Fold this protein.
Amino acid sequence: MGKYLDFVSIPPDVWSLIFTWCNLLILFLLVKKFLFKPVQNILKQRDAEVREMYEKAEEAEKNAKSLEAEYSERLGGAKEEAGRIMQEATRSARERGDEIVGEAQAKAAGLISRAEAQIEREREAAVGELRAQVADMAVAIAEKVIEKEIDPSDHARLVEDFMSSEVEKR
Amino acid sequence: MNVDVKGPEILFEIPVLGGIGVSETIVNSWIIMAVIALVCFFLGRNLKVKNPSKRQLVAEKAVTMITNLVTDVMGEKNAGWAPYIGTLLIFSAVSSLSSLTGLRPPTADLATTLGWALVTFVMVQVTNIRCHGVSGWLKGFTQPIFVMTPLNIISEVANPISMAFRHFGNIASGLVITSLVYAALAALSSLVLGWIPVIGQIPFLQVGLPALLSIYFDLFTSVLQAYIFSMLTMVFVSGAQD
């Protein structure tokens, strides 16, 4: 068109002024909508996420600590329990051992006394038998010596007396 | 030869209300807005909480930097101002830097900077009223003593004007000086090389020096003025809260 506004005019061109205001408002809205709002949203979201992470981490740490305390407490209890059980076991084992040994000794003593009794019995039987045989033998020898029959009952009495005196002498 | 530094051209008219002239300033603003909006859209897309892409890191860095700047100057409670201050900062910087692409920077038009400064002015007054009530706001003008009232009013009104002219002046002067240097170099070029046929018509001396000047007038001034303008807005608004 070839028409020019003045290089500078006071007051300035009113329509230019109005356009300027509209332009500034429009650009403000565009910049806010396209740049500031989305970026601020993202920054806010990231902030919230980071804060959440920190909270979670702190909570996890607290949990871990309480668990650790619980476990160490439990471990202590278990050790104590183990010690107690051990002691108990040792004690009962010793008791049982003593019992077994006692029983064995009693049984052995019984066996020994029974064996001794049997031995005594057998010895007595042997002595009785021997005595009878010796008496018979003595009678036979005496018969041979004196060549005469003596009354067997007197004879038995004589031998018996002799044997007793002999036994007493020994 | 004459060097004619013109104001913004009226590119077309909207045929309502006796014809609304739409100037180069406004059209260039729209182009810049479209670029900024596209970049923001591209940066702010598909954001993820975990494993952010490089693109997302850039977006997050930008938003965090602007938010930190705002909270450093205005305090934690004013973090909600970050989008507006960010918009102002980016809009101003990109507008001024657009001169690098050959566009007429919108900030080289007083209408733009005054428009922004008036927005700041209104924000300051509204913030003041919101924090102190209407009576507190009016009483604020009589501090520290009643005699100071006219001076307080002048200083309050002077704020947007000084902001607007500072920004406008810096960018517009860059525009003017760049135009002058280009014209001068073209003249020098034709004086020195003009005797060579055909090649002499090409202003070779325009290569080089303007680029150096543009580092100051375009890059440095653009970013600095954007920073100053947003910084003053933050300072004035947070000052109105006390």
User: Anything to note?
Assistant: The mean pLDDT of chain B is 86. Chain B touches chain A through 54 residues (CB under 8 Å).
